[in-house]
Amino acid sequence: MRVWILLGLLLCLTAAPVSAGFLITEICPDGYANGDGDEYFVLSGIGSLDGWVITDGEGSVRFPPGTTATGEIIVAREGTAYYNIHGSYPDYEIYSTHPSVPDALFTGRFQMANSKDDITLLYRDSPVQSFSWPEDFSSGNGRIHIYTGDTWDERIYKIGQSRISPKTFTAESVTLFASPDSSFGVVDSVISNARTSISISMYEFTHPELAGSVADAVSRGVNVTLLVEGGPVGGVSTEEKGVLNYLANAGAAVYTIESTDTLPARYRYLHTKYLVADEEITLVLSENFKPTGIPLPGTRGNRGWGAAVQSPEVADYFLKIFSEDLAGYDIHPYVPGTEPLPSSWKDEEIPVRFPPHTVHNVKITPIVSPDTSYLIPELVQTAEEQIDLQQAYISEYPDGAQNIWLNYVLEAGDCGIPIRIMLDGMYYNTDGDTDNDELVASINRMAKRDDVSIAARLKLPDEYITKLHNKGLIVDMEYVLISSVNWNYNSPNNNREIGIIIESEEAAKYFSEIFQYDWDGDPEKLDIGDAKQIDPRHILVAVILILLLIIWQLKRRR
Questions:
Q1: How many CA atoms does the CB half-sphere of 443 hold within 13 Å?
Q2: Dist. CA 5–CA 320, nearest whole Å
Q3: How many Å apart are CA 20 and CA 51, to the nearest integer?
Q4: What is the C-alpha separation between 485 and 329, in angstroms, rounded?
Q5: Phi, psi at 186, each rounded to 5°
Q6: How far apart are CA 132 and CA 343, in angstroms?
Q7: How far is CA 270 from the centre of its chain?
Q8: CA atoms of 90 and 101, how far apart (whole Å)
Q9: Given this model, what pLDDT does residue 542 score?
Q10: What residue ranges of the chain have pLDDT lower than 50?
Q11: pLDDT value at position 13?
Q12: pLDDT for residue 334
């Protein structure tokens, strides 16, 4: 009897592994390939796939007998079409198109509809998982839907986008700076002192002096790679073409990220403003490489914040992002044209009020949109003492929906936390009916009505600052956000953006002094409350109308 028991146990041990359970954890029913040949789903689990079937009601997919899995299995409609879009082959294809990709077994017609369909995962004819769209998620062209826990689409994914996890580092040192005061000196120094490599990811690059410094780096043997947005708002300017021509001809590797006639880019915009030098120093800014964003020393320009982080670990983190962005299907080598390098230009001279300041041994948490931009509202929600927010603009979400990030700030104010919000007052941020001036007025009316410590102001251009282009945040005089992330819907959800959260009381004090100067230092600042700002142009029109009325009345009396 014991012999038979032992034989039975031995047979159990040597038998095919029993399925431990599977789920569909990712699906893309509406791909980019013609006829959606690149549509796919991912089956996740460990064990035997015998008895597992995926069906859409019109067809079903299963696997050859004896197939086992040890993680994720990608099943595409057509392996070749999947490869043409993703740059790699799936584990299985439903319709045979490539000899190196194993065939799944199918019956009927299995093809996921773009706008409406349903999927059921069966194990030995028993339903294990069922979902449908648009009920469980909203499908869209190029949209990848991820199942985490019991939830679909915690984040919007598009084909080719990164999946980066948050991480915190301790940096040896961080040099803090601000535009217009001290940005050029720090940025130019990092470029000029680079020895081996410079990787630049920038929305716009029109700065002739910085272009000259980059070209000088190439001439001394530094490996320079530049990635820029190929379709910025208004198109690539003549000045930027001149810079790109100059750098490409100097020997820099220049690339653009942009859509084609057949494939949209992975991100709505590459809106980043960062640089990594020698795999050691990372520059993160709110400003583009433009004469107004990084003004020449002692000249007027934008208000923006920046930091030069000394840390090989932080540099490695950002270089991996840079490399992944550079490897996408939407990357194109720049072809130089004939536009010349733009002439040197600078604004009026100003005193330097805020020189650079270096802090040591501070914690740095990178922000990457759309992957980890959620860390910004999470930081707001941790506030216990105060929030100072300085933004170029804050806008509503599509269809007039409220801005969730702003709501978190205002909720903190409702809880008694002092809040100060400063927005740009340039004409293009105040001309519309729902722009910065209306938002400032609304916030101040709400604060007076509810008797809470919330104040909002516009920053007008003055003899020192051309415009407020910052995207900065200070929380509890301990955390500072420096980033390219605008407070609208697309920037955190659809753009590629970069930022850092610095945990340092010393850093918070440095930027708080700058914020305080901007808040108090301009005698023309607007503190809009119950009354809407009166536009000087409206006053001029009113005066002209009154004069015309007086002239008309005089003529009538004659």
A1: 28
A2: 55
A3: 12
A4: 24
A5: -70, -50
A6: 58
A7: 8
A8: 7
A9: 58
A10: 1-19, 522-537
A11: 35
A12: 98
Cα separation, 144 vs 153, in Å, equals 8
Q: 194 has which bridge partners?
A: none
Determine contact, residues 215/191, Cβ cutoff 8 Å.
no
- Comparing C-alpha atoms, which of 535, 522, 519 is closest to residue 427? 535
DSSP letter for 69, please: E
What is d(CA 508, CA 310) in angstroms, rounded to the nearest whole number? 18
DSSP 542: H
Does residue 456 contact residue 528 with C-beta atoms inside 8 Å? yes
Burial label, 89 (beta-carbon count in 10 A; 0-12, 13-18, 19+): middle
Does the predicted model carry a pTM greater than 0.85?
yes
Query: What is the reported pLDDT for 14?
Result: 36
Rounded CA gap, 538 and 540, in Å? 5
Amino acid at 541: V
Q: Point out which residues pair with 131 in neighbouring strands.
A: 119
pLDDT at residue number 262: 87
Find tokens 């653009």 and name the residue: 256
Name 121's bridge partners.
Answer: 54, 129
Q: Residue-wise over 443-474: b if at least 16 C-beta within 10 A, else e?
A: bbeebeeeebebbbbbbbbbebbbbbbbbbbb
Measure the CA–CA gap between 453 and 456, rounded to whole angstroms.
Answer: 10
Handedness of CA 70, 76, 79, 80 (dihedral sign): negative
